[in-house]
Structure formats: C-alpha cells, structure tokens
TrEMBL record:
InterPro entries: GDSL, SGNH_hydro_sf. Belongs to the 'GDSL' lipolytic enzyme family. This is GDSL esterase/lipase. It holds the Pfam family Lipase_GDSL. GO terms for molecular function: hydrolase activity, acting on ester bonds. Coiled coil: none annotated. It comes from Linum tenue. Keywords: Glycoprotein.
Length: 303
C-alpha cells in the first residue's frame, strides 16, 4: 500500500524515538484480536494488544505527538501536523483472530457465531472513538477465508471440505462475520455522516486466489511454503524457521520452500509476499470496494 501511494513504510507506534511519523503510524500487532483475550500470549498465541488497546495507543499518540511537536526543531520533522489526523486514512484488517481464537478454545461453530455480534460491537466502538478524535476516513477490510489456512485445518477437525480444499464450516463463519461487518459499516455511515467509510471484500479476492491458484500463477494454494510436516507443511510445535530435536536426537528444521513466489501461503497463517501483492493488485482499484472507489480516492466522501 505504501509503495503504491509513493510513501515510506509506516513506522510502528512503539518504534524508538527518532522514527519518522509524519506519514502515519502502524498500531497493528501480530496475532491481535478485536476483543481482549482471557489468555496470555504464551497460552493462546494471540496478542494482548487487542483493538481497544490499539485505540488507547492512538489516543496517546495523537496527544503526545502534538505536545512534543510543539517544542519545534527536529520534532517538527518527525511528528505529524495537527491537520494530519483529520486528513489521514485509518485502515483496519482485523477480526479473523477473534474467530480462530474461539475455535482454538474448543468452541463449536454455533458458539463461535454467537460471539460475532459482541466482536462487531467492540469494533464499531473503536472506529467511533477515532472519529470522535478527528478521524474522518476509514478503509475497512472484511475477514478472509480462514478455512483455507493450514493453521486452522491442522488444529480444528472437520469432515467438510469444498472443491478448493478449504474447511466449509470455517468459511461459513467468516461469511457470517462479513455480513455483520457490512451491516456495521452501514450503521457507521448513518451515525457518522461526515465520515467516508470504505468496505473492502478481501474475502472474495482471497478465495478466488486460493480456488484458482494455478490460473493465477501459483503452484500451491493451501500448503505452507515455510514449515514442517503433515499434509499442509505446518506444525504447531515447530513454526517457520524453528528447530526441534526428536526423541531419537535427530534435529529437524522448518525451512522455507525454494520458490515462495509459487506459493499462496507462507507459514500456514500468513500469505506470501507474492500472494499479498496479487490480492492488493485486485483491491487497489476499488473493484471490490463499497463504495467502488480506488484506494487513492478513499479520503473522499461519496455524497
């Protein structure tokens, strides 16, 4: 996204002093959820920095950046102007981990579906809080077909698979979440009439890539490029780049495949750089957006 817009990569919010935040900040963390989790990172693999915490961090960043910037000098060159917050594009791609975390707690599919309204309510609250602090432009991705990801298929049993090899109940839950998210976006538009809110159907794009991977230049759609063992080259015990000794003393390593550009999936959880680029190329023009505006026009409100 940054490259497409001719911008440097976003600095992480927690980067050291001296980072340049004039073009924005990244509040995302690996494994984050919308709802706070009742488990530790070690127990579940999901981040304690949930979306509400990211919202608090944004609040602190907004206030502290302006306080420090007012000192002048180098700070003016590293921190955003006050007007930048109203003109910024606030992007969200979150929610999948709330669903998979519920499955990993041994919830049934109906139980996972039952938590979706609360997840979306908390998402809506954070977007409104950013709006209350001056944010006006929002670019919101729906969640992807996580039933096509090795880390789910290898951990949660299912007997139902579709023609792409994806777990049917998981993708059904993803679509239920997305219908709810689209409804939530509609509510936000009514409640925040000055805001420009774009809903992007990345589920449709990602599923098309996985279902017709070879048509789009990929050899492997679900099997991970970097991993070890099993049908999907994925193991919970040894992640990409990890090493482990077997009982017989033999050391095994989760190595990368020779050509990641031929794989859709990198490590059973994330897409490869090539996969992500293909997805971005589909959505940047606005063909899968509501309203159907390209990314460069996302900061314009359609009347």
């Amino acid at each position: 996204t940054a490259q497409e817009l001719g911008l440097p990569y976003l600095s992480a919010f927690l980067d050291a002093i001296g980072s340049n935040f004039t073009h924005g900040a990244n509040f995302a963390t690996a494994g984050s959820t919308i709802r706070p989790q009742n488990t530790t990172l070690h127990q579940s693999g999901f981040s304690p920095i949930s979306l509400n915490v990211q919202g608090y961090q944004f609040h602190d960043f907004l206030n502290r950046s302006q306080l420090v910037r007012s000192r002048g000098g180098v700070y003016e060159k590293l921190l955003p102007k006050p007007t930048s917050f109203a003109g910024a594009l606030y992007t969200f791609d979150i929610g999948q981990n709330d669903l998979t975390a519920a499955y990993f707690l041994n919830m049934t599919t109906p139980q996972v579906v039952a938590v979706i309204p609360d997840v979306l309510s908390q998402f809506k609250a954070v977007v409104k809080a950013i709006h209350d602090q001056g944010g006006r432009h929002f670019w919101i991705h729906n969640t992807g077909p996580f039933g096509c990801l090795a880390y789910v298929l290898a951990r949660v049993p299912t007997a139902q698979f579709d023609e792409a090899g994806c777990g049917v109940p998981f993708n059904r839950v993803a679509r239920i979440f997305n219908r709810g998210l689209k409804k939530t976006v509609g509510q936000l538009r009514k409640e925040l009439p000055l805001a420009a809110v774009t809903y992007v159907d990345v589920y449709k794009v990602k599923y098309e890539l996985i279902r017709h991977a070879k048509l789009h230049g990929f050899n492997e759609s679900i099997r991970a490029c970097c991993g070890y063992g099993g049908e999907y080259n994925y193991s919970r015990e040894i992640g990409c780049g990890g090493k482990m000794k077997k009982k017989n003393g033999v050391e095994i390593e989760a190595k990368s495949c020779k050509d990641p550009s031929r794989y859709v999936n990198w490590d059973g959880v994330h897409y490869t750089e090539a996969g992500n680029k293909w997805i971005f190329d589909q959505i940047v023009g606005g063909r899968f957006s509501d309203p159907p505006l390209p990314l460069r026009m996302a900061c314009y409100r359609k009347e």
